[in-house]
Every structure is written in structure tokens, then in C-alpha cells.
Design a protein that fits this description.
44% helix; six-stranded parallel beta sheet; 383 residues; Rossmann fold
């Protein structure tokens, strides 16, 4: 009887301390959903290790998460097979694979979750080599090259959009939505949020987001359009991304008197920025769209025209088709048309209200919990 009790207690301890490696990083679109899953996993009593890239954005984005464990790993995107760069990629990948095998063994990982991007590939392969359950999450409507490769090593594929499910052949797929960081579930009062940034609570606020990696042409357009905005009716909160900040800052310093603008390279407290805003203009990565949906924030989506498989346009179409957002192509925009169309939208209260309701319908507050449930279930059946 004593031996049976000891065995039961050991199984209970194992279940309570399940260890999940989350391979994310390289962009905010991979990293922030990974952080959301890690926080949910640890709240369930598990332990999480996040493998991220060495990029500046990863360092910025992980500030404020000292309670989570991060390991940085060098990674590069896979070039075409006939490119001379394939040798450098192969060497970097091999080092990443050996490092991942070491990390997974030391951490005593029970499962691996890849969030997309080539930062996730070496840990996924390592997990497969060690016989662990492996999972990928694809946020976009069309999967990227890394996740199409990673799917070959996956126990199950998890997707944010139902439209993405058919891209993975015979692999088991679950539609779960895209995870949202817990801090973004806390919605500040809009007036308080505007004051947080030094904005006028009585004015409509345009939020411009260049994304974690920036968006050069979008940031340039906004800088040029500042001279065209009605100075006494709207205000601009501009998050540029680190690399475009100095350029954008100069444009804001030249803005007309009376136009209120705030420009920052990065915002670690997006709940304040989203709550302060009446309309967003941004790229259409899935993580950004998830954040907009959680706040019901209407948006003008300007897809990055060189995204793999044009997945940002497909993402934007899903939202624009139901009136949650407007899809504007970058090539069609000048500073004058950009400012006029944005001003007209900001001054259409009824239109913004309808867009907001349509945007809220895309909110998936339980996505990280659903991912943890899938992994927990797989681990339970594996024991």
C-alpha cells in the first residue's frame, strides 16, 4: 500500500511540474503569443522555457517578464537551396540544433511548442529527436515557410484562423485563435489612457503602429501626412519600431502647431495605447490583429507587400470582408490621400462604431488556454 501511495504521489508531482519549451522570437508576432502561452502554462503549475532570438526586438519585448525564463539562440532565415548562403544557414542551424538538444535535456522538457519563424525550427527538430510531443502554432491565414517545415515534426498543428487549416495536409489541426498577453486583457479607461500619453482626452486619437520590426514606408507616409491633418481635431500616437524612430521623430518635430503628436520607438504597455485610440493604422500581422480585436479597435490595414506568400493581405481580407477594418494597399497611397481618408474615417462616429463591433467578433480571449489544454491532453495520453 505504501509503495502504491508513493507511486501515485510521484505521478501527481510529474503532472504538476510539466515542462514546456516554447520556441518563439525574431518578431513580436512570434514572441508575444509565446509569452502569453508561457504565462498561462506557469499559472497552471507548469514550468516554461522560452527560446528566443538575439535580435534587438526580443530584448525590448522581454523587458518586464523577469518571472519567465528566456534563452537566446542565434538563427537565420533559410535561403533558397541554390543560394551560397545555404552553407551559412546550415552551420547556424546545426549549432542551434546542438544547443537546443542541450537545453531540452537540461530543462527536462516534456513538450515543445514552436510559434513560427526559423527561431523555432532547431528546437522543434530537437524535440522530435528526443521523442517529445511537438506542436506548432500558426497565427496567420497563410503559413510561413518555417511552419510548413516545422509541421513535418509536429504531433499537432494549432492555427489562429480556420482558413489556415487546409495548408497542412494530413496533419491533425486544431483552430484555437492567437494568444493574447494577460496584460492586454486589462482595459484602462480611454480618458485615463489618453492622459497617460499626454494626449487631449477630447480629441480623436489615431494610433499608428509600425510593428515590432518597423514599417519604413508606412512610417514615412505618416510623417509626410502630419502636415495635412486638421490640427485642432485629431491627434497622433505613433509607435515606429526601433529602426525608424529617429527619422519619424524629425517629422513629428516639424508637425504644424496645434497638432498633438506623440512618437515612441516601442511600447511595452500596449494596453494603454490601444485604450487611448479611436482608429489604428498598421500592418496586418496576426498578432497585431489579435490585439486590435481584443479592444474592438477599428483599423486601416496596410499589408506589408513583401510578406511571405502575401499572408498579410490574406489576413487583412478576413477582417475587411466583414467591415472590421479597411484594407489599403501601400502602392495606392500618397500623403494627401492618406491623410484625407484617415481624417474622414476618424470623423465618422457611426462608421467607427460599426467597425468596432465587427472587430470585437474576432476576439479570442481563450486562445492560450486552449493551446495549453491541447498540450496537457497530449502529455496525459503519453503518460
Amino acid at each position: 500500500m505504501a509503495a502504491h501511495s508513493e507511486s501515485t504521489r510521484e505521478k501527481s508531482d510529474t503532472k504538476r511540474t510539466r515542462r514546456l519549451v516554447i520556441a518563439c522570437g525574431g518578431t513580436g508576432g512570434h514572441l508575444f503569443p509565446g509569452i502569453a502561452v508561457a504565462e498561462d502554462w506557469t499559472r497552471r503549475g507548469g514550468e516554461a522555457l522560452l527560446i528566443i532570438s538575439e535580435k534587438q526586438i526580443d530584448s525590448l519585448a522581454t523587458e518586464g517578464y523577469a518571472h519567465l525564463r528566456f534563452e537566446r539562440q542565434k538563427s537565420i532565415a533559410m535561403p533558397p537551396l541554390l543560394s551560397p548562403k545555404i552553407f551559412g544557414f546550415g552551420w547556424t542551424f546545426l549549432k542551434g540544433l546542438l544547443d537546443s538538444l542541450r537545453l531540452l535535456r537540461e530543462f527536462r522538457a516534456d513538450a515543445v511548442l514552436g510559434m513560427g519563424g526559423f527561431t523555432s525550427t532547431a528546437p522543434m527538430v530537437a524535440g522530435k529527436m528526443l521523442g517529445l510531443p511537438t506542436f506548432i502554432h500558426e497565427s496567420n491565414a497563410i503559413p510561413g515557410r518555417a511552419n510548413l517545415l516545422n509541421a513535418k515534426f509536429s504531433t499537432r498543428v494549432l492555427v489562429g484562423f480556420e482558413a489556415c487549416a487546409g495548408h497542412f495536409g494530413s496533419r491533425p489541426v486544431s483552430t484555437v485563435g492567437t494568444p493574447l498577453r494577460p496584460k492586454l486583457t486589462i482595459k484602462p479607461d480611454p480618458v485615463e489612457a489618453k492622459r497617460h500619453f499626454g494626449l487631449d482626452p477630447t480629441r480623436k486619437t489615431l494610433l499608428v503602429m509600425g510593428g515590432s520590426q518597423g514599417a519604413l514606408r508606412l512610417n514615412e507616409l505618416v510623417g509626410e501626412a502630419l502636415k495635412e491633418f486638421p490640427v485642432n481635431r485629431i491627434q497622433v500616437l505613433h509607435i515606429t519600431g526601433p529602426q525608424d524612430f529617429e527619422m519619424a521623430k524629425m517629422a513629428h518635430e516639424s508637425a504644424p502647431d496645434g497638432l498633438i503628436t506623440v512618437v515612441v520607438p516601442f511600447c511595452g504597455e500596449m494596453q494603454w495605447a490601444l485604450a487611448a485610440s479611436d482608429l489604428a493604422v498598421c500592418r496586418s500581422g496576426a498578432s497585431t490583429l489579435t490585439e486590435l480585436a481584443s479592444y474592438g479597435l477599428p483599423a486601416v490595414l496596410v499589408p506589408y507587400p513583401f510578406a511571405a506568400h502575401d499572408h498579410q493581405t490574406k489576413n487583412a481580407e478576413i477582417f475587411s470582408e466583414v467591415g472590421a477594418a479597411q484594407l489599403w494597399q501601400q502602392a495606392d497611397l500618397s500623403a494627401e490621400t492618406f491623410s484625407k481618408r484617415l481624417t474622414a474615417l476618424l470623423e465618422d462616429d457611426d462608421g467607427l462604431s460599426k467597425m468596432s463591433q465587427a472587430m470585437l467578433a474576432f476576439s479570442t480571449p481563450g486562445a492560450s488556454d486552449a493551446i495549453c489544454e491541447v498540450i496537457d491532453k497530449a502529455l496525459g495520453s503519453a503518460n
